[in-house]
Amino acid sequence: GQGAQYIDMGRALYDDEPVFREAVDRCCDLLKPHLGLDLRTILYPTGEAQAEATEQLTQTQITQPALFVIEYALAQLWQSWGVQPAAMIGHSIGEYVAATLAGVFSLEDALLLVATRGKLMQSVPHGSMLSVALPASEIDPLLLPEISVAAINGPSLCVVAGPDDAIEQFEQSLAERGVERRRLHTSHAFHSAMMEPIVEGFTAQVAQITLRPPTSRFISNVSGTWITEAEATDPRYWGRQLRQPVNFAAGLETLFAEPDQALLEVGPGRALSTFARQHPAKRQQSIYQSLRHPQERISDAVFLSLTVARLWLVGVEIDWAAMAGDQRRQRVPLPTYPFERQRYWIDAPGVQRSTAPSPMPNALASEPVIEKPVFALHGRPAGAPEYVEPRNAIEGHVAGIWQELLGVELIGIHDNFFEMGGHSLMATQMVARLQDVFPVDLPLSALFEVSTLAELGELIETLLIEKIEALPEDEAQQLVESMFG
């Protein structure tokens, strides 16, 4: 859905993967008469055009086709590697990709509809959207008449939408109640009453194309369960899909009723993966992403290769010859190994306390302090790295905060906040909690630059040392004692 887009989505794949590039090129050529421009100049701008492309990519009439193109091209690439979906779910515009892959729309008709949908949405007055950390049942009594619930992304995570002034007033009332909330980077109030004027016109546009029964399963955003043939082939359904809330949480519950599966996010970032990891109906399903978050410093190609490896590890069949393409591969013989299922490992020795006169090393090397929250905790998610306990007080404090926010029983030093179920609202809470414990300036962006608890602990330690070294000795001593006792 909207909000996940960024310039250069999958750029390395466009440069190096012929299947991905051909899909992007075909879509962009088909979109030219509808958009009046070549979308590739916005997706993959040259250096001097990046600022303008970034602004254009926030415009709904560009955002929706751009997301469709990247998601569709990624799906073609995965399928060329032998990864075929047993089922699909999309978030708002993502449902159009799922429907196209299922044969409801031809690619040409899908691109026409997506371009039309984006233009119609852009034509209505501006509005705002707000992510709120409350269940829909608790939000409904608080809503102003002009505001609608636009998405139910989790049992306690919703999005509301409406006119700018109404959202501003509602946001203030939530602040007074101490409710976590975050403005979304959108220009319009999607899936709200502000969309009513365009529903009829869009439905008429859908009625002009051929709709076919789906050949594979996908979940309806409207009902939150498997779409029926009657719905998929009814133009009025696609009009309702534009206006009604995205019931993504119910759709996930439907998916999680089938435990023997892996979930793969086919699009930019990890928003849907985060919703899935947090869902209470999740069992042992593994969850992966195709593309990095824009703030992650890793090549798209490397990121995707790691996901391929992780999927293979959980039993997904990969067509290795197709993935290699025309690259030459050589077999490397390795010595055999008897997998006797016996553990042979040299455990790290206990952390030694320093006797140096400086107070800081003693504080940093003290025993971990992991708070034990008094609420139900669940086990570590499937696919999580092997648990390694915190090694010092800083890691212990961080682990305790993650444990409480994520509801995970054991948090280890190799865990990633977002891969363990964190999302942006929770990240804001986490940074605030960390700054209550550690008197350092820790920007939210740091969570994307340091991927594990160990790396975050190391960053906090560095910031603390810099702060302590800048203080007089007596103030430094007091600061250390206030944090670690």
User: What is the number of strand segments?
Assistant: 8
Strand order of the largest sheet: 3-4-2-5
Using only CA atoms, what is the Rg? 25 Å
What structural class is derived from the secondary structure elements? Answer: alpha/beta
- Tell me the fraction of residues in β-strands, as a range: 5-15%
Query: Poorly predicted ranges (pLDDT <50, ≥5 residues)?
Result: 351-375
Put simply, the count of helices is: 22
Assembly classification: single chain
How do the helices and strands follow one another from N- to C-terminus? HHHHHEHHEHEEHEHEHHHEHEHHHHHHHH
> Main β-sheet: number of strands, strand sense, barrel status?
4 strands, antiparallel
Question: Shape, please?
Answer: globular
Please give the share of residues in helix. Answer: 40-55%
Distance between the termini: 47 Å
Task: Based on the model shown, name its key terms.
485 residues; alpha/beta; four-stranded antiparallel sheet; two-stranded parallel ribbon
What does this structure look like?
The longest helix is centred in the N-terminal third of the chain and has 21 residues, at 60-80. The strands form 3 sheets. The protein has a 4-stranded antiparallel beta sheet. It contains 22 helices and 8 strands. The relative contact order is 0.09. Helix 5 (60-80) runs antiparallel to helix 7, helix 7 runs antiparallel to helix 10 and helix 18 (393-406) packs across helix 21. The protein is globular. The chain has 485 residues and is α/β, with parallel strands linked by helices. Helices cover 47% and strands 7% of the residues.
